[in-house]
Amino acid sequence: NKELNIIKEELKSAGTQLGKIKSLESLDIARAVTVPEEMDFSQTALTSLTMMKCGIKAVPKPEALPETLTSMNLSSSEISEINGDYSKLTNLKTLNLGNNKLYQIPEAIGTFTALETLDLSGNLYGTVPDGILTNLTGLKTLTLGMYLPVQKDGTAYVIDPGYPDTKQIGR
């Protein structure tokens, strides 16, 4: 089977073994009670990774993720930081970091260069730092949520006021 759903379970040391399933394409470990920080999916064929409501504190390291990944849902966890260069994830089109603990939008967001959809809603940041979205040239949908007033900074982003929480971006 190429799909695995593990809901509301303690992964502990068994979680580190998931990265050894080379044919694994879709993994959903939503609401897992314990998720080992050292999980490495780099040798899998994952295209979809869901780790929502897992209590993780950081986005998995770039070297722990496969280049085949197209969608990653890390929403509703405890993520407060994103570190590293994620530019090797050239197939990652959708990233959901909504409802975490990001007090600022990290510069590492700009290294997810292939993104088309980015959800940052429900975090605690106040502004979008200048130039942080410049590298996201394929971005079509940016969900910021109610915490952030969208500001024009001279770039070619066009904000559609018809979407109060989801912003359609055109270039």
How is this structure best described in words?
The chain is built from no helices and nine strands. It is mainly β and 171 residues long. The protein has a nine-stranded mixed sheet, with no helix packed on it. Strand 8 (158-159) and strand 9 (166-170) form a beta hairpin. It is globular and about 40 Å long. The N and C termini lie far apart (41 Å). Mean pLDDT is 78; it is low at 147-168.
Kindly summarize this structure in a few lines.
With 171 residues, this protein is an all-beta fold. Helices cover 0% and strands 16% of the residues.
Tag the structure with descriptive keywords.
single chain; globular; about 170 residues; 9 strands; mainly beta; nine-stranded mixed sheet
Biggest sheet: strand arrangement: 1-2-3-4-5-6-7-9-8
Number of strands: 9
Mean pLDDT: 78
**Separation, N- and C-terminal Cα atoms:** 41 Å
Shape: globular
Beta-strand fraction estimate: 15-25%
> Helical segment tally?
0
Structural class: mainly beta
Q: pLDDT under 50 segments (min length 5)?
A: 147-168
Secondary-structure element sequence?
EEEEEEEEE
